[in-house]
Each structure stands twice: as C-alpha cells, then as structure tokens.
C-alpha cells in the first residue's frame, strides 16, 4: 500500500519476495490497465491482448504446483489479486476464473491426462477456461441444478443451461457441472464440441470490462474420459469456489484502496470556499474512516492468507473475509464518490466504476446472505439455509 493508506506499516509484515511480486503486478496495472480501463469499461471491451502479459507475470494458475503453473504462495496470489482489482474487478476476475476456478478444478479433481492436456496451456495463456456451475434458476442453491449428464454407452451426453459464466465465449475449455444418476459430477468440455453455445450477456451496469455468458448445452457428447474423476457431489465445485472467494478477499481491498486514493488526490487539489476539500473536517472524517477499513480489511486478508499457506484455513474463515471485505469495500467506493461530487459519476475517476463492479463481486461466489448463514451455522451450530 502507499504511505497514505498503510497506517499500520503492513508492508513490514511482507517478505522481500512478496513485496517484489506485489510491485511487479502494481507496475503492470499502472502501465497496462489504468490508462485504458475507462475506455474498456465504457465500450464493454475485454482486452484479450493483455492475457500473454498476465501469463508472463505468472498470474494464471498462480497458486498451483506443477504442469507449468507458477506455484506461488497464497499470500503472493492475494497480493496480485489486490493489485489487479485496483485496476478493475473485471481483470482480476479473469485471473480468478482462469486459475481459481477452471484450472483449480482440473488440478484438484482431474486425471493426469486432463492435467497434462490443459494446465500447461492455460498457465501460458494460450488456452482460456471457464467454469459452468450457476444456472438461470440455480444460483445460491446449485444442488438444484437442472443440467443433466446421462450415459450413452461409453459416452456422456449433457443437456442444460448455465448463466453468468465468465469467459465462456472466448474459452477453449469449459468445466461443466451436471447432475447424473450418481449425483453432481464435473466434466471437461472443449468449447468446440458440437452443441456447446456461449452467448455474452450484454447491457450490463457492472463488470463491463469482462465477459459473462449464457451457455446452452444441447446433446453435448463427450467420451467417458471427460469426467473429472476425483470430484463427486457439490464438494467438488465448492472447493474451487473457495479458491475464488479467497482471491476476492484481497481483490476487494484493491478496489477500495484505488477509490480512496482517487478521493484523497481530488480532495487535496479541489478548492472550495478558498481552501482544499481535504482541509474540511467532514472530508477528513470520510478519508480516515476509509483508511481504517482498508487497513483492517488488508490485515484480515493477510491473516487468512497466512492460514491458507500454513494449511490451517477453515471454510468459515473464508466467509469472514469475503463478507467483510466486500461489504466494506463497496461502502468505501461509494463514500469516495461523494468526495468527488458530480465529477465522480464520470469515468474520469474510478470510485463509481469500482462500486458498480463490486455489486457483482459482492454477489458472485456467495452472496452476503449465504456467507452470513455459513457464519451463523458456525457460531450457533444450527443451519438456517431453509
């Protein structure tokens, strides 16, 4: 974090290697994303041209070992997510869908053949993946998915629909979760398979510099070897979702930090009633409250990252981070916009763009309500989902 944000010398808790990686990603965001993001967001354009650079920085499948993957720590991945989302949630989401969802599914649950076929290409950015779990009528309750895979001799035939599937229209491979006679199973589906159709969702008010799609699967025929052999039941996709949720814990603080810095810079330079906005008590209160929550949220993310690296992270702790940091980040971005006044509704400044994006980030990989209920069950021992 910059000096104006890091009130607690959080940088001193990071190793030399962690700081170096953080700084490399920050430089990439400052030079390759921030100068263009207003145009990309305005025109709803996802910049595929920067994917090779992301791969070159080791951002794809960053936390995975072997098969050409970078094998970095959870904290290093978190720091990268924070810096990417300081650029835009859509660009951090690309790294999350590619690495934490699609690649993680194959890495955790795939056969050696599946791993060797897809992971090296995905780590190099020459193949893009997507993760098909959510359906038009099954978001927070994926156990009621309608997509179905039936056996036909040695093959599988899949029919169904998925919605809000990131990257599906530009992906070469999809991990599709479907109900079978043996419960929920995952399948590795090359997107050029007949019957696979991905249609981008347009007219979005959020995540405009990224791609989300409707996916239709019509008699998609796959060989028996397409099934992920180690994933049975909802535990398979949920393990991948927890990887994505972990990245969000860090990423949300990146959006918050960038919004705070935009508001602080504006307040220092904007004169009202003959002195800078930053010189007024009400403005300082807003800035202080923002900085406090960014420091607390970053410390929370770091603690969760250290627990993950130590192999001691528990599922409810991911919900603590996702719920808290998304909730606080969106409040920070909205408050930052108030300091910018009317100018804050333009794409000349980042806070409202970040706030709009966080409406999606707050919803996907588990809504506030889902994480509240996960934590409620942990605290009371009583599930209250139904």
UniProtKB/TrEMBL annotation:
Residues 232-379 form the Acyl-CoA dehydrogenase/oxidase C-terminal domain. Signal peptide: none annotated. It comes from Arthrobacter gengyunqii. This is Acyl-CoA dehydrogenase family protein. The keyword Acyltransferase does not apply. Residues 16-125 form the Acyl-CoA dehydrogenase/oxidase N-terminal domain. Keywords: FAD, Flavoprotein, Oxidoreductase, Transit peptide. It comes from the Bacteria. Residues 130-220 form the Acyl-CoA oxidase/dehydrogenase middle domain. The keyword Flavoprotein applies. Its cofactor is FAD. Belongs to the acyl-CoA dehydrogenase family.
């Amino acid at each position: 974090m910059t000096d104006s944000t890091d009130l607690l010398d959080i940088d001193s808790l990071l190793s030399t290697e962690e700081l170096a990686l953080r700084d490399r990603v920050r430089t990439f965001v400052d030079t390759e994303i921030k100068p263009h993001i207003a145009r990309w967001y305005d025109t709803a354009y996802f910049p595929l041209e920067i994917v090779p650079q992301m791969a070159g920085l080791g951002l794809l499948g960053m936390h995975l070992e072997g098969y050409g993957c970078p094998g970095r720590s959870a904290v290093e991945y978190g720091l990268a997510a924070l810096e990417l989302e300081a650029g835009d949630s859509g660009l951090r989401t690309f790294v999350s869908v590619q690495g934490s969802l699609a690649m993680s599914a194959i890495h955790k649950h795939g056969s050696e053949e599946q791993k060797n076929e897809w992971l090296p290409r995905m780590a190099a950015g020459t193949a893009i993946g997507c993760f098909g779990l959510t359906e038009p009528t099954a978001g927070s309750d994926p156990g009621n998915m309608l997509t179905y895979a039936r056996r036909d001799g040695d093959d599988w035939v899949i029919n169904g629909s998925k919605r809000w599937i990131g990257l599906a229209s530009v992906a070469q491979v999809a991990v599709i979760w479907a109900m079978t006679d043996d419960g929920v199973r995952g399948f590795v589906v090359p997107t050029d398979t007949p019957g696979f159709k991905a249609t981008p969702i347009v007219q979005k008010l959020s995540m405009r510099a990224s791609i989300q799609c409707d996916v239709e699967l019509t008699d998609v025929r796959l060989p028996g070897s397409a099934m992920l052999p180690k994933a049975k039941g909802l535990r398979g996709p949920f393990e991948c979702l927890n990887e994505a949720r972990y990245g969000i814990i860090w990423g949300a603080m990146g959006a918050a930090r960038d919004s705070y810095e935009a508001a602080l810079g504006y307040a220092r330079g904007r004169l009202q009633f003959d002195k800078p906005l930053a010189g007024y008590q009400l403005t300082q209160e807003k800035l202080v409250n923002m900085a406090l929550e960014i420091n607390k949220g970053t410390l929370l993310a770091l603690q969760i990252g250290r627990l993950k690296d130590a192999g001691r992270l528990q599922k409810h702790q991911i919900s603590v981070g996702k719920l808290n940091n998304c909730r606080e980040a969106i409040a920070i971005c909205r408050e930052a916009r108030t300091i910018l006044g009317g100018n804050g509704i333009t794409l000349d400044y980042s806070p409202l763009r970040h706030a709009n994006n966080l409406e999606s980030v707050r919803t996907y990989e588990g809504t506030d309500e889902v994480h509240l209920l996960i934590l409620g069950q942990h605290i009371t021992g009583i599930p209250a989902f139904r």
